[in-house]
Design brief:
By secondary structure, the chain is α/β, with parallel strands linked by helices. Helix content is 48%, strand content 16%. Helix 1 packs parallel to helix 12.
Amino acid sequence: MEFPAPLFLLLPLAAGAVVYCGMVCAAVVSYRRRAARLPAPGTHPQPAFSILKPLRGLDDGLEENLRSFFRQDYPHFEILLGIDTEDDPALPVAEAVRREFPNVPSRILVTGESPYRNPKDYSLERMAAEARHDILVMSDSDIRVGPEMLRTLAAEFADPELGCLTCPYRAVPGRSFWTRLEALGMNTEFMAGVLVARLVEGMKFGVGPTMVMRREALEAIGGFSRVKDSYIDDFLLGRYAAEAGFRTELSAYVIEHRIGSQPFWKNIKHRVMWQRGTRFSRPAGYYGQAFTFPIPMALLLLLAAPSWWPLAALAAAARYVAAWAVAGPALRDPLFRRWWWLLPLQDVVSWLSWLAAFFGNTIVWRGRRYRLGAEGRLIPAASKPDPAGR
């Protein structure tokens, strides 16, 4: 039997994608079992937390995002809000929310312009130096949580060996169709990859946009200055903590990531930019993503050899089962239940973005163009290439 040339590539990719979807389902089961083993409320110490919130500009829903952290049903915590300059439009919003909650210890720090290429790390460094407590919750301004978040984190930090915790998230889109599509991908594709990585090798990396670290672990790895010029700082913080001997884990608490709204072309550029970040942070994982696109592989397989439709149908069905497992039991995401029929389009767009990220090594971030070096290092695009790749 003669195979068309494309089948020698498509058959293993489609079959591998089916196997990968099975791994996703196993990873969800493993993740849920860990969450079920957490100690019950009241059976463990209640450590104090310092919540560090770097602010810059007006995110969609910023006021309610901040308010959700002030509403924590927990006795021991403080909130520090870091902002670059006093003319930032986020400042009056932060001040208004603070006035609503006079009983919550909170402070605003105007940190000044960052000397680091990743300004978030400078803001976090300044806030950590002022924080009163030794467990630091580092959370972006586009995150919204429920009042039970700190209670869940306290149960997890009852483990004295835990040094770094990273929170999974379900993306909540704005009004744009394209960000709705992206949120669907985040909640069924990106988080699936995180869960599989946890299953295969353990959590040896971090995932923004919310991480929690003991101060001891942060200081042991050299603090924020060690990742100050990296685009993938959250990934590296978790990796360095694991390499230093601290246990890292994926939290049982799922946060909401409010991704706002973007038009088509801006959204596509955003997707390619993040794929390039993956390419430079986890090269092996990036190439391995070839097996994580069941629906595009199924479509190509049908075009190349329609008689192989049973394998194509199996790959598509496996993708839907894996998507349901992540969006449902793992993330409790309502978006998938409503927009499941958009999954093929989302997966094709994601696959094309992954292919596009193979070409080029530059990104535009915070209005500046950078080349990406090893470990996602941000190098001003006008700089001469570093022969060592740093």
